[in-house]
């Protein structure tokens, strides 16, 4: 245990020298202060008798202390001597240095964990676990996409230092790509920051009054009867899977994402009902599979009971592990490319075959759902607006949601049978049931007004 006069050059020589075994070099200027140099590192210690027991107190590695002193141009041994002075003051105050060191380490660890927890990516994960489980599967997917984009840009930032301007700029980037996606992102960010404000003591909530960046335009597009004929024909030309999936959506009025996730195991034992449990409304609906819809399903290739009816490829490993499916359904986000690639090129050919003008006004898969809802009460006979809403699995609010728990399955089934018959009229190019009845009524009225002319005797 050599005792040395510690200098900057002497210390550099000792630390750089190769040591096969650990050697303690004691500072001649500070009793008890030593530098233990070994094969791997050099560590400063302070040897002190406390309560009659000789105790070795670790001060830190030579590199750590050198880093502490670097801003003030202090050598590592100077920092070590200062720490010895602090320890002596702790002892003089009646405290045990090791207990104080343990407390400081705990505080530092807690501070690091707290700082780590405040990173946007970690706050986002905590929020997802506490919030998303209560939402419908499709809503969860939308929220996760919005959250992933925000965390990709700010995941390593402390959520407490993000400004309103940074949030607005992040939303502007999303808006440039998709206004509706920007509005969903704004909803998610507001929820995220409200959660963080409550749990991480943020001084203020920069997202509290941020409005949706895009003005939401409510779509009113519905297809005319001739447009339905053309689209049906184009879907027949396009075939499986996209053409058949769109035709099935026209038969049932269900959301295209739900149609894309429709599995063979969702059909009941009678083969007449689609027991739909995974949907945006997060409520079960039994969708009657009428004649046109049954014909479409019967022509779909069978990839197994757990596989979807409409599939465009094999399931990923995660999907396969999740529910045993070998083939993946058609996710909603695939239609943006599928329609211009598979359906739109057949529109002109279909219109020409039917002797009609091609569809020129843009349409989306959701417009088919709106068309079915409009047709149920606008073209069909015998379907009430209330039943039409239930066909689409729309929630009925107000007091009725509290008191009305009747089984509307027969009403929904009958409405879909009526729509199936109306679809047959559409495809044959005939007027609607409502129009036919109106025409018949006018004819009866005209015939009733005919007064025979009597001749005088």
TrEMBL record:
Which Pfam families is this protein grouped with?
Answer: Phage_integrase
Keywords on record: DNA integration, DNA recombination, DNA-binding
The residues covered by the Core-binding (CB) domain are: 118-197
Any one Gene Ontology molecular-function term assigned to this protein's record: DNA binding
Residues annotated as domain Tyr recombinase: 218-417
Alphabetical GO biological process terms = DNA integration; DNA recombination
**Which SUPFAM superfamilies does the UniProt record give?**
DNA breaking-rejoining enzymes
Biased-composition ranges for Basic and acidic residues? 97-117
InterPro entries given for it?
Answer: CB, DNA_brk_join_enz, Integrase-like_cat_sf, Integrase_catalytic, Integrase_DNA-bd_sf, Integrase_recombinase_N, Phage_Integrase
Residues annotated as region Disordered?
90-117, 431-457
Start-end of Basic residues biased regions? 443-457
**Family as reported in the entry's similarity comment:** Belongs to the 'phage' integrase family.
Stated name of the protein:
Site-specific recombinase XerD
What is the organism field in this record? Answer: Pseudoxanthomonas wuyuanensis
């Amino acid at each position: 245990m050599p005792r040395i006069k510690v200098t900057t050059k002497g210390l550099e020589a000792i630390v750089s020298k190769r040591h096969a075994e650990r050697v303690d070099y004691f500072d001649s200027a500070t009793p008890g202060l030593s530098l233990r140099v070994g094969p791997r590192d050099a560590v400063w210690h302070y040897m002190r008798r406390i309560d009659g027991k000789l105790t070795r107190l670790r001060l830190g590695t030579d590199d750590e202390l050198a880093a502490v002193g670097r801003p003030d141009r202090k050598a590592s041994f100077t920092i070590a001597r200062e720490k010895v002075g602090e320890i002596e003051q702790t002892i003089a105050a009646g405290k045990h240095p090791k207990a104080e060191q343990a407390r400081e380490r705990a505080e530092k660890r807690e501070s690091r964990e707290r700082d780590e927890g405040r990173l946007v990516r970690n706050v986002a994960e905590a929020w997802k676990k506490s919030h998303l489980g209560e939402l419908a599967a499709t809503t969860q997917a939308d929220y996760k996409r919005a959250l992933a984009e925000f965390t990709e840009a700010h995941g390593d930032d402390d959520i407490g230092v993000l400004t309103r301007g940074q949030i607005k700029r992040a939303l502007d980037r999303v808006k440039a790509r998709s206004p509706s996606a920007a509005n969903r992102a704004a909803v998610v960010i507001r929820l995220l920051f409200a959660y963080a404000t409550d749990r991480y003591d943020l001084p203020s909530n920069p997202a509290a009054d941020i409005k949706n960046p895009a003005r939401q335009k409510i779509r009113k597009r519905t297809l005319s009867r001739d447009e339905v004929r053309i689209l049906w024909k184009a879907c027949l030309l396009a075939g499986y899977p996209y053409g058949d999936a769109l035709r099935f959506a026209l038969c049932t009025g269900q959301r295209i994402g739900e149609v894309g996730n429709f599995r063979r195991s969702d059909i009941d034992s009678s083969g007449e009902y689609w027991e739909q449990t995974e949907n945006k409304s997060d409520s079960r609906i039994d969708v009657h599979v009428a004649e046109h819809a049954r014909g479409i399903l019967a022509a779909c290739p069978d990839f197994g009971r757990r596989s979807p009816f409409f599939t465009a490829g094999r399931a990923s490993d995660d999907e396969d592990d999740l529910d045993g499916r070998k083939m993946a359904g058609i996710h909603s986000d695939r239609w943006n490319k599928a329609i211009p690639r598979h359906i739109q090129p057949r529109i002109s050919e279909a219109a020409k075959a039917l002797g009609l003008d091609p569809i020129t006004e843009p349409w989306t898969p959701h417009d088919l759902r709106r068309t079915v809802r409009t047709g149920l009460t606008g073209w069909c006979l015998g379907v009430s607006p209330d039943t039409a809403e239930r066909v689409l699995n729309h929630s009925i609010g107000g007091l009725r949601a509290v008191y009305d728990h009747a089984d509307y399955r027969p009403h929904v089934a009958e409405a879909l049978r009526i729509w199936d018959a109306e679809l047959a009229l559409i495809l044959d190019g005939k007027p609607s049931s409502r129009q036919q009845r109106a025409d018949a009524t006018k004819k009866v009225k005209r015939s009733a007004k005919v007064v025979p002319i009597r001749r005088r005797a």
